[in-house]
């Protein structure tokens, strides 16, 4: 499955995933490769033969196509080299962002696709390092094949803006000419509410047809001229009078469709995405969604499941959202990387607010000085914002969870990355989850101050005292004073089924009691605008993290890895629900 809705009606798109591919390991030391039929998307750790394999492997399959093609790989963990008919077509680093390969003028017939995947840890990889979560191996998200003509829409971003009580859709699109021949035509943009197919849109999507549009107020047309190979940017604004707002309570969605028409009026390409009419901004200590104060009650969630690794199918993603909702949550933090778009589609549809962050966890200044760190972080940010810009559920961008935000060098990295986000998206606030207790120096760089705290777990200071001390320091001593303040992690470990009258650490009783105290302290603090519990479900960690991580799992889930509720489930549910 590529998305929860169709993104093309004119461009021919075929899913190459949701089926078995030929898979073989590529062992370093001359051992026999393991050969399997393996599911894409999937993780090779889910097969008994490769449960513990770390290294290089290759996935192959044939496909039918002709002419110009675009392959989109939505996630390969963690480094990929893509070959079409034996010729390298793309390479990419980072498991959690999509990338593409565009190949010109394929002869009609059968072609061969090979994806070499590497999930090794070595100095080339600054972000995928041995960590408190697992870096799986495989093609872990969907793969799409698209057949392109001479020109195609490469990007389509919508920013909803409200002026004088009216909503406008500000649209920015890019169109690419793949050939030397010039192209002169136009691009028609159509906005409509999801669920209702207007005559205008129905006409516009008829392949090769011409169309007329009676609903001028929801469309705009831009002239397109490309002298030869290259890309053109188009900007327009559409007045969407009477548009219904997206909110967690009523997540009304709209589609935006960009249709490229030739000079003769033929529709030759299209791209459809969804968005919602909503504005997020900060004002003093508040985060406002369409002017309403947000109170975040959320969970941090890893993409992790014992049966699927990080490649959760739709049904498992949906179940996670159902359980979070049942506990009274209104938000999820995609710790610690950009998530599968299908999960974001579900969040859009369910009105679940999302904190999305780039990929980095707990890197020291030394690790941030890896020569590849800056480029790999920037690529991740660019790809995340480009791909997820339109999701109304994303209300904030985060970067660099628990990295060196307390040193001057660290600060220079935070500054570059936050500025990059600002240059790509001016419509959302930015933040980072800090663990630098009373030593952070980066709060002047972001709109929202966020801290991860573990009173009653890693230390025994009472939660209210610890929080008050930290909050007062932020207000009195830092540039975070007067800004919205979130707790982005709090929690305690419990091993599912470990019950003890002594209420010792790792028991379900201890976790439930600790969470009750932590949440009550946080939610009753007048300065705090919300909390994310660490974490929704237990997750697998890297083997070298076994110390302090019984079962080689991070056991702070409110449900275990199979989503079985621990005692704290009802504690969280009672507290979150009592506040709605
Ligand atoms: C950190 C970190 C999480 C996790 C957590 C824990 O705050 O951000 O990824 O490691 O601590 O369980 O200790």
How do the helices and strands line up, and which of them pair or pack?
Elements lengths: L11 E4 L3 E7 L9 E6 L15 E18 L2 E2 L1 E6 L2 E7 L5 E20 L19 E2 L3 E6 L2 E13 L2 E12 L5 E11 L5 H6 L14 E8 L3 E10 L14 E9 L4 E9 L4 E4 L2 E4 L2 E2 L2 E5 L13 H13 L4 E3 L7 H10 L2 E5 L7 H4 L4 H16 L5 E6 L8 H17 L5 E5 L14 E4 L10 H15 L7 E5 L18 H17 L3 E6 L5 E2 L12 E2 L13 H11 L2
Parallel strand pairs: 21-22, 21-28, 22-23, 23-24, 24-25, 25-26, 26-27, 27-28
Antiparallel strand pairs: 1-10, 2-3, 2-4, 4-8, 4-10, 5-9, 6-7, 6-8, 11-12, 12-15, 13-14, 13-16, 16-17, 18-19, 19-20, 29-30
Bound molecules: alpha-D-galactopyranuronic acid.
Plain-language structure description:
This protein is an alpha/beta fold and 580 residues long. The chain is 19% helix and 35% strand. It is built from 9 helices and 30 strands. The protein has helices at residues 199-204, 314-326, 341-350, 365-368, 373-388, 408-424, 463-477, 508-524, 568-578, and strands at 12-15, 19-25, 35-40, 56-73, 76-77, 79-84, 87-93, 99-118, 138-139, 143-148, 151-163, 166-177, 183-193, 219-226, 230-239, 254-262, 267-275, 280-283, 286-289, 292-293, 296-300, 331-333, 353-357, 394-399, 430-434, 449-452, 485-489, 528-533, 539-540, 553-554. The strands form 7 sheets. Strands 1, 2, 3, 4, 6, 7, 8 and 10 form an 8-stranded antiparallel beta sheet that branches. The protein has an 8-stranded parallel β-barrel with strand order 21-22-23-24-25-26-27-28, surrounded by 4 helices. A 4-stranded antiparallel beta sheet has the order 14-13-16-17. A hairpin with a 4-residue loop joins strand 16 and strand 17. Helix 5 packs parallel to helix 6. The radius of gyration is 24 Å and the shape is globular. The protein starts with 11 loop residues before the first strand and ends with a helix. Residues 132, 336, 361, 401-402, 435, 452, 489, 534, 554, 556 line the site of alpha-D-galactopyranuronic acid.
